[in-house]
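Handout for the seminar on molecular recognition.
Each group receives one record of this type.
Step one: identify the two inputs.
Step two: read the structure output and locate the region that could contact adenosine-5'-diphosphate.
Step three: write two sentences on what you found, then compare them with the reference statements printed after the record.
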Amino acid sequence: MPAETTQATVLKFGGTSVEDAAAFERVVGIVRSRGGPHPVLVVSAMSRVTDALFQSVDDGAAHGLEPHFERHRDVARRLVRGDAARGFLDELERAREGVVQLVARARDDAGARAEIPVLGGYIGASRSGSTTTLGRGGSDYTAALVGAALGAGEIQIWTDVSGVLTADPRVVRGARTIPSLSYAEAAELAYFGAKVLHPKTTQPAMDRGIPLRICNSRAPDDPGTVVTGAADVWPGTVKAIAHKTGITVLQISSARMLGAYGFLRALFEVFDRHAVPVDVVATSEVSVSLTVEDGGGTGLSAVVADLAALGEVQVQRRRAVICVVGEGLRTTPGIAARVFETIRDINVSLIAQGASRVNLTFVVDEEHVEGAVARLHAALLERAEAGPGMPASRPIRRAPGREDEAVDPVELARRLIDIPSVSGEEEAMARFLASYLERLGYRVELLEAPAGRPGLVATTGAPPRLVFSTHLDTVPPHFASGEDDEYVYGRGACDAKGILAAQLTAAERLRAEGYTEVGLLFVVDEERGSVGARVANAHPLARECRWLIDGEPTENKLAVGCKGSLRVALRAEGTGGHSAYPERGRSAIHTLLDVLADVRDVAWPRDEYFGETTCNIGVITGGTSANVIAPDARADLHIRLVTDQAPVRRLLERAVGSRTGVEYLSFTPPVRLTAVPGFEQCVVGYTTDVPHLSNWGRPLLLGPGSIHDAHTARERIAKAELERGVELYVRLARTLLAEPAVAAGEKGRGA
Ligand code: ADP
Ligand code: MG
């Protein structure tokens, strides 16, 4: 929760949360209890005021606003005293003259306490600086923008319902709060009609990884909904249904489309020209169907007129879009069949699936939409056994007949190897594991950041005290699996898919023994920049976890330390010239070679615990041509540290002198890991995700396979080693969980 950070908490109160004096008093209470040390408030207009303003513009008369001015006066009389009240009422009078400014000003004075910034929402500025609005519901977006700009710890949207519900509560009585949503899910729901969030709200929050929380200002203790990069995946289940009425479907048919190109571009240019946004699109060989919102008729008729030049245009008005949302949809075959079976007597005119992995969207006649939503909710969300609204500690239930089906680590390793997951392309691997683990009965959460590269956390439902962790990604290139009697081959066989298979098997064996506090954490990007581990480190489950067993190939020895790493570039500069007259120039390559010779002679520090510092000259580049004196040259060094970086940098800089530039590219300190008696020990020379997973408990490092096979074209792991790895993981976990004090010799998390 934000209370213990120095970050701001942005709280946005919707119109229904500031509708009268009592509501304002509730707001004050909520800011005190939930706003943390640095609350920032964004408030909407009092409920119904924006609508009344629009109406007065339509009517060309402001008298309909009088009751609303009276509501503001009433709030002032009840909550503000003396000079402040007089000031407010004066202000209100002036505001009446400038209706455009009413919303922002009146509110600021009613709700502000001196130390807390209070902003009006909804009003923005165009690129040229003139005042404009962010559209209906735009205060949500204001709050998200402010939150992102401040790097807030959390953005809270306070409204009149307890979070995002499984459907619009005005249409479905039994709609329930969804405890957690991914940014993608929330964005789809908002876009397709869940009015509780402005469609653009998720973008700034997602860009900065800030959690969005939707709460009820009339029931502040209800848990509400939290929207983050992490999402529960419930394969086979839908999380919510949104719908939007007032939709027009346009169908453009033309034989010219057949085998032609440029047609779609011409078509969308029409919408572009008239600034009419398109929501849903489906195409066949000779026609395109798409939906637009009914906004002022003129825009649309101009669009239709232009489209007529491209083909025959049919306009179907009074339609509605229904959008079925859930992160589990993509991994679940048969959802579409269930959806359309449920409403088989209702005419469906346009279907789009797969553009976003989290939704299935289609169009029905407006008059049928409420019935369709209610039936879909009953079929997909009220009978479902697992799904949103279920308590986090839902007990594991295995599918009937699966009890005895043990995971075979060799077979699993091969299946994992056959799914390519080079760094940057881990998604298929993550989704396979998510549904695999879910089928085994785990509760799985995807860690959806960076976008399209999910990692995952799996638990038995109880918060884990120990997690097995490794990475989903491999180095390139991918090559498929193979095996003989002794080995499994393929990219990732030892780094780290064999290890992942061993960890998963171990977790299953422990679970069969009755251990519930064992989790699995698989991250992306270990081979590149550890982005996945950094994201995972912020996960709320981390804090409760005591032990992190990271998996890297250690030949089944418990690594008690990892050397650190320092990456350096040396850049030499020369003066170019004709190679026939070397005395007239100075060669950067010659300089660099001299420097490198001296670097190779450096007596680097040695450490009792970690051993030798090593220095690899990995890349040399430079020069232009054999007959030109090289104007530049560069060497990339990778130093494995056994001490802090300072003495190494001093030695390096002394060896180099002023002959070349020294640029430090990255640094990771050596790490001491937890030792446990009864396991063979080693120190490894490579770096791991361990420093980036510091919140997950005391780190240990163990895994089958040899680092000398990793990253090679003959990557492999011995089957016997894989099985031995499973046994060691099980034994290690039992030891740690049985006797938390057993760990000896470690001094904190770093060295
Ligand atoms: P505020 O004034 O606080 O911004 P809004 O009226 O804009 O509140 O949004 C809240 C309303 O959104 C709820 O009262 C509810 O009627 C409507 N709504 C529509 N779909 C959903 C949904 N899926 N979950 C929650 N509320 C929804
Ligand atoms: Mg709103």
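Reference statements: The mean pLDDT is 86. The CA atoms of residues 733 and 739 lie 10 Å apart.
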